[in-house]
Specification:
It is built from 16 helices and 17 strands. The termini are far apart. With 445 residues, it is an alpha/beta fold. Strand 4 and strand 5 form a beta hairpin. The protein has three domains: 53 residues, Electron transport complex subunit B, putative Fe-S cluster (3-methyladenine DNA Glycosylase II, Chain A, domain 3, Orthogonal Bundle); 247 residues, TIM Barrel; 120 residues, Rossmann fold (3-Layer(aba) Sandwich). The strands form five sheets. An eight-stranded parallel barrel has the order 3-6-7-8-9-10-11-12, surrounded by six helices. The chain has a three-stranded mixed beta sheet with strand order 13-15-14, with helices on both faces. Strands 1-2 form a two-stranded antiparallel ribbon. The structure holds iron/sulfur cluster. Iron/sulfur cluster binds next to helix 2.
């Protein structure tokens, strides 16, 4: 738990010697509490106080990096239970499991399919975060071959095996990529902790309940492994979800260090929709890594969409650039529609215009990332702002006509906009779903 200034003050020397640059120890404590100073600035702090202060500065859920360089993801370092309290910062990585018992050509095809699991949604690229190679054969050679094949992907690796010999063979080929070793259990943890330490790789620990998991993470940490992932997967979805929630609560609210690591959950079962449902539940609460055998785009996109929605900070709306966008083979006679720069609004309008097959310009006015009604209500979308947008360089020159289509919800400003811009103002539909019909009938009519 982060200490308050007074708690920190009690641990300082209280001599007010000013060597830290602050006039008093209390002033320095206040800076430390706000993370505006470093403890190293005080030369006289005792070792005991240092240990306590540094411990309190550690995040309740450790930030763990899997992979290296461009091919990596970070999970953990979350500070709140619920998004409405602050925000969630590190989206869970979705890893796709492939077995080393697949024949070589099937494995190649599967890996190629996984490499294509990237999508652009509301202007942001989203995709899977890892490929997990399952040592289903139980043998080192096929595991090594599958790991080598998976190295061709631009993704971090998860090495799924309980067998030290298999892991040792694979790590010899890929340790520099810093894969996640999955997973240490009560029988193999010493050997796997040795491998993780030797190769400087993160290590997942797995147990059937949180008590055993807590004890195991302490043992592994005691063996010198710092980057730990907790595999909390239980028999069924409900139990896994309960373990995810309990582990997070114990780490954040009870400050239980042995559970202060990102959690991993594996979706189970052959029914794709059941598997997909589990993935979504684990993304929502509160996995750092979700592993699944699903690999079809129609199964993966909903999971990634949910993740994007949860990990988008609602206080910082995603925005598109304010400018004129061309949809289709536009000409100077094409219609010009006005909307706002809230990404979801723009992409909804753009999608409907595209579906109408009527080439059109979309003029995106800067409303600080708010939707039409919000912008209108807060005076961010006014007749003045639209008129000045129409007068800007490169807007009016796109079209020969002087007609602008505004969203139906802001029809009330038509008169003022006509006066201020000199353009003919056409009132479009209230909902984006009406755009196609509007362009085909009212505009072309
Ligand atoms: Fe207090 Fe240490 Fe700063 Fe001196 S250097 S004023 S002892 S906090």
């Amino acid at each position: 738990m982060a200490l308050k200034a007074l708690d920190i003050y009690k641990l300082l020397p209280k001599t007010n010697c000013k060597q830290c640059g602050s006039p008093t120890c209390l002033a320095f404590a206040m800076k430390l509490a706000q993370k505006q100073a470093s403890l190293d600035q005080c030369p006289d702090v005792s070792e005991a106080a240092r240990a306590e202060l540094e411990g309190s500065a550690a995040p309740p859920i450790r930030l763990v990096t899997v992979g290296s360089g461009e091919r990596r993801f970070e999970v953990g370092n979350e500070t709140v239970m619920f998004r409405h309290e602050e925000s969630f910062y590190h989206p869970p990585a979705l890893g796709i499991i492939v077995g080393d018992d697949m024949d070589a050509s099937a494995l190649r095809e599967r890996l190629a399919a996984i490499s294509r699991l990237r999508f652009v949604r509301v202007g942001t690229e989203i995709g899977v975060g890892a490929v997990a190679i399952d040592n289903a054969s139980g043998e080192p050679e096929p595991f090594l071959s599958a790991v080598k094949a998976a190295q061709s992907l631009d993704l971090p690796l998860v090495l799924m095996s309980r067998k030290p010999a298999s892991l040792q063979a694979a790590l010899a080929a890929c340790a520099q990529q810093r894969p996640l070793i999955h997973a240490a259990d009560k029988d193999n943890w010493q050997a796997l902790a040795t491998l993780a330490k030797e190769h400087k790789c993160p290590l997942a620990v797995a147990a059937s309940n949180l008590d055993d998991l807590s004890a195991l993470s302490e043992s592994v940490k005691g063996a010198g492994v710092e980057d730990i992932i907790l595999d909390v997967t239980a028999e069924g979805e409900a139990d896994t979800l309960q373990a995810l929630t309990a582990a997070r609560r114990l780490a954040l609210k009870k400050h239980l260090r042995s559970l202060g690591y990102p959690a991993l959950a594996r979706a189970q079962g052959d029914d794709p929709f059941e598997n997909l449902g589990q993935c979504c539940a684990y993304v929502a609460k509160y996995a750092g890594i979700v592993l699944t055998t699903l690999y079809q785009p129609e199964h993966i996109l909903p999971i990634l969409t949910l993740r994007q929605n949860i990990y988008t900070d609602p206080r910082k709306p995603i925005q598109v650039e304010s400018k004129v966008y061309e949809i289709g083979a536009v000409t100077p006679d094409s219609p010009l529609l006005i909307t706002t720069n809230f990404s979801l609004t723009y992409y909804t309008v753009a999608g409907e215009v595209e579906a109408s097959r009527v080439p059109a310009y979309i003029g995106v006015v800067d409303t600080e990332g708010t939707s039409v009604l919000t912008a209108f209500a807060s005076d961010k979308l006014t007749s003045e702002s639209i008129a000045s947008f129409l007068k800007a360089d490169g807007v009016g020159s796109r079209v020969r006509h002087r007609k602008v289509i505004i969203p139906g919800f802001i029809a009330a400003m038509s008169g003022a906009l006509r006066e201020e811009s000199g353009w003919e103002v056409m009132v479009g539909p209230r909902e984006a779903s009406g755009i196609s019909k509007y362009l085909k009938t009212v505009w072309r009519g």
